[in-house]
Every structure is written in C-alpha cells, then in structure tokens.
Amino acid sequence: MASGCPMMQAKTEHPCFGGDHGKAGRIHLPVAPGCNIKCGFCERRFDCANESRPGVTSRILTPEQAVARVRLIRRHMAMQGGVHLKVVGIAGPGDPLANQKTFETFRLVREAFPEMTLCLSTNGLLLEEKMPQIVEADIHSLTITINALTPATGARIYEWIRHGGRHYGGETGAAILLERQLCGLEAAAGAGLRIKINHVYIPGINDHETLDLAVEVRNLGAQVMNIMPVIPVGLFRDVEPPSDATMEMVRNQAELILSQARHCKQCRADAAGLVGQDIDVERLEKKRLAY
C-alpha cells in the first residue's frame, strides 16, 4: 500500500513531495558546509550517530566522494528488494547555494545517474540569483525554509545574514532575507520547479504568522508546506516545543490553505534510505572498505 501523504497530489516520486516514502528512498549529500545566515535554532557543533537533526552530519564530502556514496546507497537499497533510491538532494549542513561545490556535485551525479530526481534545500537568500544554475543543473524540487513573515519576527529568529559582502543583523537583516526569499520563491515557481516551504514553528515567537505565511507562499507558487516543531537548541534551548496536539491543529488549519507534509523526520544533512528508516552510512562505508 502506498504511504504518500494523502492530501498531496503524488505527481512525483520524491518522498517529501507526496511520493511513496515507503518505497522511494532519498540521500542527502553533505557537501555544503558554509552558511550565509545564522538561525537561532541552528546548532552544528556536535553530532552523534543516533542524532537526527537538520544541519547535522558526521563529515563533509567532496563531490567525488558524494558520487561514490550515491553509488553505494543505490546498490545497497537495490539489494534490499522493493525499495529504490530515487532522489539525490543537498541540504547542508550549511546553505547549498552559498557553496561552490553544490553545483559541481549535482553535475557529477547527473552524469553518473541520469535517472535520479535532484533536489535542493535552501534558506532562499541567494535563490533568485542562482536560478540560472539551478535550471541548468536540472534540479526538480526545491525546499525553502521561511520562518518569519515580518522583519520584527525575523529579527527574533535570525542572528545575522551575510549578503553582498556585508553582515546585517536585526530587522534590517531579516527584511533583506524575507524579500530575497519571496522573490526567489516566485522566480522558482515561474521556472516550473516543485516547491516546498519548511517552517520551524516556535511558540511565542513566530506562531502568530504561520497561517498568513501559508497564504503568502501559496500565492507565490509553493505547492507544499512542512511545519516543523522547533528543536530546543541554541537561542531557543529554553523554549518548550509545541505538543503533538498543537502541531496537528496547526497543520489541519494550514491544510485548508496549502497541502501539508506530515511525515517529516527533520532529517540530517547526511540522511540516506527511506524517510524514518535511515541507513547507517558510516558503518556501510567502513564495511565496504573492509572487503
């Protein structure tokens, strides 16, 4: 039985965009360490094998190592029977569009595995200006993380941004980021990409803007929204995460506006396998080297 989210139109094999996440696997390639914004909830200083959190990876790969990892995971999943690697994405640990190796990696992956769906996750700051490279790389799907709809709220979430060679903080930085995110979203929709909006839901900080954000991004061309509970780390280490009941209520309300992704596991930057059933990549690579 298919296990895609029922409210999404399954027009793609991508498990995060309505595809069957019980059969279609994905891999995140951690080739992008640098970031051009600092989110208050971002904490990348530590990692353990059992920790699943966006921005976390055990190590950074070169583009060539990334292609070798795709080959290994693709073969490993094929041997399991009934499941297949369908999607290759770059989701950090920093922002992919702020790293030169992102597009070199996509080029090598496309050459080696032309059947793969390519996807990218970004904070959106450089999205509009990188659209020509995104289209040239034949990227199918984009995830844009937008956590605020006003500069005042954004200033409480983002510590700083770096844009055009300068650092900006406070509402000035948040306003630049928001303007770039919305312009990038509109440009990506105009180019025909499938677009999901990630939104970190932080009680008492940005929860009052979530539904208005759903309306705004829907009107600009987003097809799916993924509302995620804040993980209490960094500046928000003392914030109590929203309950499961609260998340269900918010997603139900938002679903009246825009399709909701409900199976998100807030995956690592080096996740591989089926969503929620990640493969121990480090162990698999060590086993390969042992033979």
Mean pLDDT: 87
- Measured by DSSP, the beta-strand proportion falls in 15-25%
What oligomeric state do these chains adopt?
single chain
Largest sheet: 9 strands, mixed
User: Which residue ranges are poorly predicted, with pLDDT under 50 across at least 5 consecutive positions?
Assistant: 1-10
By CATH, the topology is TIM Barrel
Helix content: 25-40%
Question: Would you list the SSEs in sequence order as H and E?
Answer: EEHEHEHEHEEHEHEHEEEH
CA distance, first residue to last residue: 37 Å
CATH class reads Alpha Beta
Pfam families: Radical_SAM
Pathway: Cofactor biosynthesis; Fe-Mo cofactor biosynthesis
Cofactor: [4Fe-4S] cluster
GO molecular function: 4 iron, 4 sulfur cluster binding; lyase activity; metal ion binding
Report on the architecture of this protein.
With 291 residues, this protein is an alpha/beta fold. The chain has a single domain, classed as Aldolase class I (TIM Barrel, Alpha-Beta Barrel). It is 35% helix and 19% strand. The strands form 2 sheets. Strands 10-9-8-5-4-3-1-11-12 form a 9-stranded mixed beta sheet. It has a 3-stranded antiparallel beta sheet with strand order 2-6-7. The protein is globular and about 50 Å long. 46% of the residues are buried. GO terms for molecular function: 4 iron, 4 sulfur cluster binding; lyase activity; metal ion binding. Belongs to the radical SAM superfamily. NifB family. Keywords: 4Fe-4S, Iron, Iron-sulfur, Lyase, Metal-binding, Nitrogen fixation, S-adenosyl-L-methionine. InterPro entries: Aldolase_TIM, rSAM, rSAM_sf.
